[in-house]
Amino acid sequence: MPKRDSRFRGSTAGRQGPDAATPPPRPRGRRASWVLTGVAIIVVALVGVVAYAVLSDLEPDSPAGGDDGIPGANGTGQAAPLFSLVDTDGNAVSLQSLRGKVVVLDLFATWCGPCRTQMGELKQVYARYNASDVVILSIDVDEGETQSDVRAFRSDYGAQWGFCTDTDSVGAKYGAQYIPTLVIIDPAGDLSHIGSGVEQASDLIAMIDPLLAS
Fold first, then answer.
1. Over the chain, what is the mean pLDDT?
2. Smallest Cα–Cα separation from 195: which of 5, 12, 64, 7?
């Protein structure tokens, strides 16, 4: 799955994507450069040991995974971060206004191949439920893309649910380092699931149905 652009800031959440590509090796230098490099490696190693010791002493419920305290595991019941946006039809959308419904957030970008694949899975989920019970909201977390870009993307895929640009730092609030990131929020407004990468419609439905029955 693609990693979010370097412009995005936020902690990681849910399953993580592949590691970033290994940087190219540095050209060889003179003996003095090797000595300095060796010293630098030793210093970095010592800092890493100290950092590990500090993190190891954190309490289990400390938000060590990120500034927003988004859980690293699903189903914690933590309150979902609130947001307010305007969709491509000009309608105001806020998480608070969706209380009482299951909300599926699809954090994406129009240029992301896996995000396009996710559209087909979300169309199946959308067709299964009544909009009064389950709301899908796709939020473009690429700050460089416009409402017009998102509107055209939605039209290309014939998607009938709401699409927005991320004008309220939703990607950062939910720690979406990789896209697509799928978030499921229960009717009480609590986080039920956060996952990165394409998720099958059958898996999403299996997580949504119990929330409707509870």
1. 77
2. 12
Whole-prediction pTM? 0.69
Quick check: 37 pLDDT over 60?
no
pLDDT for 5: 56
Known catalytic residue: 115? yes
Q: Which residue has the tokens 């055209």?
A: 152
Question: What angle is formed at CA 138 by the lines to CA 188 and CA 184, rounded to 5 degrees?
Answer: 30
Name the catalytic one among 102, 104, 115, 122. Answer: 115
Known catalytic residue: 112? yes
Q: Per CATH, which fold does 9-16+27-214 belong to?
A: Glutaredoxin (3.40.30)
Q: What are the sequence ranges of the domains in the chain?
A: 9-16+27-214
Among candidate residues 95, 112, 184, 185, the one labeled active-site is 112
